[in-house]
TrEMBL record:
Highest classification ranks of the organism: Eukaryota, Metazoa, Cnidaria, Anthozoa, Octocorallia
Protein name, per record: Coiled-coil domain-containing 166-like
UniProt GO cellular component terms: plasma membrane
GO molecular function: G protein-coupled receptor activity
Keyword match Ligase: no
Length: 354
């Protein structure tokens, strides 16, 4: 990437692949200085929970063979890794960019990296959340096809291809600035429409099944176990919906709100860009918190289901033991009767006929 800089009192003009970018080197007012200091403080606070919560989620899933084997938790694992990268690289890089703006040491390379780097995890997160929604849709509406259609390999290939496409769009945006806008608009629209469709279908199915279950008066142990398993699937669907909703609110709603400020001074609008990036960084911490809370609820449900299965298995063993005991008693009684009848027959055969 070839960069050339043209300096003035407050900013430098960077040229990358024939495209012009402006980077602030000196803040024009105390208002902008206070704005940036608040952003630095908030981003500094975000680093710890973002790294800690996502690391806990990753370790929890990797240590549990039961969770690690399930595609739904594999998607959460991938999402947590992406958010962890944001905490380890994205936020510190953005902090360096903010501090350079205060100290007047901004440069083209650092600024462009800090501005464009958040786009990659946001784009990959959008693709991963789309996979999460599809996984929940198939698990609830097409459970018999779930094991063959949804596999960890397919999920990894899908997310990997999405990451490559997102990276290509970011590189292209250095030449064509509207590339990210067009790609983001198409991707967000697709994910939003499918999420609305999937959540509506899931809601209708759950409502129908709840109505049919309420009509049953006598529910057997096996039906209770199936109901627990279904509740687990619904919990995961709710978790998916909450994460997707939070992602859209934090990552895409603020740009829509701030779009009306595009006609303001470019340096003033740069201050709003700082907060847009900060809110997007906060999304990585919020996602991990929602997933961590839902994992605890789902794990408790799984333990409850396992207890039900253990109790059901224990009942079967008791019935089997009782059956074998009664069978033995019946055989003993039958042997006794046969012996008595044989004895009577022998006595009758030995009795002389008069």
């Amino acid at each position: 990437m070839n960069n050339s800089a043209q300096e003035d009192a407050f900013q430098i003009s960077c040229h990358s692949f024939g495209t012009r970018h402006f980077v602030i080197t000196k803040l024009m007012s105390d208002k902008l200085l206070i704005n940036r200091i608040f952003a630095i403080v908030l981003n500094s606070i975000l680093i710890t929970p973002t790294i800690l919560l996502n690391a806990i989620a990753i370790i929890t899933i990797l240590k549990s063979s039961q969770l690690k084997s399930k595609p739904c938790y594999f998607i959460i694992l991938v999402q947590s890794v992406i958010d962890l990268v944001v905490g380890v690289l994205g936020i510190p890089l953005f902090l360096a960019f903010l501090i350079q703006g205060i100290t007047g040491t901004s440069n083209c390379v650092g600024a462009l990296l800090a501005i464009h780097f958040p786009v990659l995890p946001i784009g990959v997160s959008t693709i991963t959340l789309f996979a999460m929604t599809v996984e929940r849709y198939i698990a609830i509406l097409h459970p018999y096809a779930y094991k063959t259609v949804v596999t960890k390999k397919r999920i990894l290939v899908y997310v990997g291809c999405g990451a490559v496409v997102t990276f290509f769009v970011i590189v292209l945006s250095f030449r064509i600035q509207s590339a990210i806008t067009i790609f983001g608009t198409l991707l967000v629209t697709l994910v939003f429409l499918f999420t609305a469709f999937a959540c509506t279908r899931i809601y209708l199915v759950v409502r129908k099944l709840n109505g049919s279950q309420n009509q049953l008066s006598n529910v057997e142990e096996e039906n209770l176990t199936r109901k627990k398993l279904f509740r687990r699937e619904i919990k995961q669907a709710k978790s998916c919906f909450m994460v997707v909703t939070c992602f859209f609110i934090l990552s895409f709603l603020p740009p829509m709100v701030f779009i009306s400020y595009k006609n303001t001074d470019e340096r003033e609008f740069g201050a709003k860009d700082v907060w847009l990036c900060t809110i997007s960084m906060f999304n990585s911490s919020a996602n991990s918190r929602l997933q961590y809370d839902q994992e605890a609820e789902i794990k408790s449900l799984e333990e409850e289901v396992q207890q039900m299965r253990a109790k059901h298995s224990e009942t079967i063993q008791k019935l089997k033991a009782q059956f074998l005991h009664e069978k033995k008693q019946f055989q003993d009684q039958s042997d006794t009767r046969i012996q008595a009848m044989a004895k009577q027959a022998n006595q009758a055969s030995n009795t002389p006929i008069v």
